[in-house]
Write a structure and sequence with these properties.
Radius of gyration: 21 Å
Structural class: mainly alpha
CATH superfamily: Amino acid/polyamine transporter I
Strand content: under 5%
Helix content: over 70%
Shape: globular
CATH class: Mainly Alpha
Number of domains: 1
Distance between the termini: 49 Å
Number of helices: 14
CATH topology: Amino acid/polyamine transporter I
CATH architecture: Up-down Bundle
Number of strands: 0
Largest sheet: none
């Protein structure tokens, strides 16, 4: 039931919010806030958004470090994995918005075939118990929990990239094929929930901490020189983690910089400003501090709270943007779609 509600909520919030951003091409979330809200309120909202992006990246850095240390090389110092990840993300996140956008597209194209291959192997594996999935599906009448709904809606949160990268959209931009969002969301929601149940059963599945890593290790390829699907999964997991942390560090950096009303964002920055290095380095140091403090239980607690707060923030952001769109329609002197991208990059 939580999945079903999350699909409806996630689809609604993502399509409505994306439609609102479409009305302000060339403007990121900070520019929209400064245009329609008092300066103090705009700065507070931008800072809140920056903290949410930064905390999400730090949580993924810890998860990546623990997963790679557990399955790739348990005898290796886990802080070495952390150092490699942090250095890569500091370098990637400090680039210009245009460079980060291109990097995300390239990494997605490289990762998609491997990810689809893992999903195909999961469905066609003869060890999958479809009866176990049907048993769990029979509990659809059970009352949902807010925590589960918030976690499931995270599958639809990719639209939040528009809060920053909408700056790169030219006037007259149209976001097409939004009907794909619920279809892709439904597929990945049921895949990520039911496939581990099919491999591990209805009782044991909740006992695993690294659930999808164990699930991938349950699959075997009978061709090629790599037999364990886990190795392929770790490659995909590494790419996805790098993409996510690069994006969150860059977005948090840009939002913190936008807390200054005098800041003028640029699509291309060459050479990279020192401020970019400083902000991303601070995020990296905070990642080390969090990894020193956290363990599996603390990280589970922090992640659950982050997912719930993120869901509330997304709904709040949707309502704010609807109010802004109403104000833009009400004021005949507002031309939000003009001038934003023209000034961007100068």
């Amino acid at each position: 039931m939580s999945l079903i509600i999350a699909i409806v909520c996630g689809t609604t919030v993502s399509i409505v919010t994306a439609g609102c951003f479409q009305r302000f091409p060339g403007l990121g979330l900070p520019e929209i806030f400064y245009r329609y809200f008092p300066k103090g309120l705009a700065i507070a909202l931008i800072a809140l958004t920056a903290l949410s992006w930064m905390s999400g990246g730090i949580l993924v850095v810890y998860s990546f470090t623990r997963t790679m240390g557990m399955f790739f090389n348990p005898e290796m110092n886990e802080f070495l994995f952390l150092f490699i990840m942090v250095v890569a993300c500091i370098f990637a996140g400090s680039r210009s918005s245009r460079s980060v956008q291109f990097s995300l597209e390239i990494l997605l194209l490289l990762t998609a075939p491997l990810g689809l291959f893992i999903l195909y192997k999961a469905v066609t594996d003869h060890w999958v118990s479809w009866d176990a999935m049907r048993v769990v599906a029979g509990y659809v009448h059970q009352a949902p929990t807010f925590k589960s709904i918030a976690a499931a809606t995270f599958l639809f949160s990719g639209y939040l990239n528009l809060s920053l990268f909408n700056r790169l959209n030219p006037p007259g931009f149209k976001l097409k094929h939004r009907w794909v969002i619920p279809i892709v969301g439904v597929i990945f929601a049921f895949y990520t929930f039911f496939i581990p149940i099919g491999f591990h059963g209805t009782m044991a599945v909740e006992q695993y901490v690294f659930l999808w890593s164990i699930t991938a290790d349950s699959m075997i390829m009978q061709y090629g020189f790599v037999q364990r699907v886990l190795f392929t999964f770790l490659i995909v997991f590494s790419f996805l983690s790098l993409m996510f942390v690069m994006n969150t560090f860059h977005s948090a950096m840009e939002f913190f910089k936008s807390c200054s009303p005098r800041h003028r964002p640029k699509a291309e920055e060459m050479p990279v400003p020192k401020a970019n290095w400083i902000y991303c380095a601070v995020f990296g140091v905070l990642s080390f501090i969090y990894c020193f403090w956290a363990n599996e239980q603390k990280n589970q607690w922090a992640t659950e709270w982050w997912l719930m707060i993120r869901f509330c923030v997304e709904v709040f952001l949707m309502l704010l943007l609807l109010i802004i769109v109403f104000l833009a329609r009400k004021d005949p002197n507002v031309r939000a779609a003009k001038g934003g991208s023209a000034n961007y990059g100068k």
